[in-house]
Amino acid sequence: MLLPEPIQHLINAFSRLPGIGPKTASRLTFYLLNAQDELALDLAEALSSLKSGTSYCQTCFNITASGQNECEICASSARDHSLVCVVEEPLHVLALERTAIYTGVYHVLHGALSPIEGIGPDDLRIHELVERVRSGNVKELILATNPSMEGDYTAAYLRQQLLPLAVRLTRLARGLPVGGDMEYADQNTLQRALSGRQEMS
Ligand SMILES: [Zn+2]
Fold this sequence. Notes:
By secondary structure, the chain is α/β, with parallel strands linked by helices. The protein has helices at residues 5-15, 22-34, 37-52, 72-75, 90-98, 126-135, 149-162, 187-195; strands spanning 54-56, 63-65, 80-87, 104-108, 140-143, 168-171, 198-199.
């Protein structure tokens, strides 16, 4: 082994992150090695509290501070709790919040159905969504999964599961880049997709 173990360890850890290849992993590692101690220590502290300091909202499964049962959005009386936007990832909640026009609440699936990757309904928060609709006062569900093959497939599956429950189902309007990720859609595009949402039921 040419490199001391601690260096190789960090390079390997960085390499496992999405979008980071071996070269970038090495560059980041050596950057931290040469940077002031404070940067590496701060990063280490942030990483160790990332998991211990966070948990999932028991209503919408968005990320929340640990010790809180509900996220700020679910706990807010200013939000319309009868309107639920279903998204794949917590980052999509952030993207929709940036539009500043959405006043409803969310449900985070934590992924999309993908038969190819072996991701089925039990791997996502689909059962919880059905229960939420069944037991709550949800009037409309906006299916805001990604405009990708998996996202469309997930929306079609949800439609099939939720149609018998007499809830209004809508899908974000087209105009989002096909195959793309909601996270990267700009504010105007998301605003138009929300206000032009189409009936699915
Ligand atoms: Zn919540």
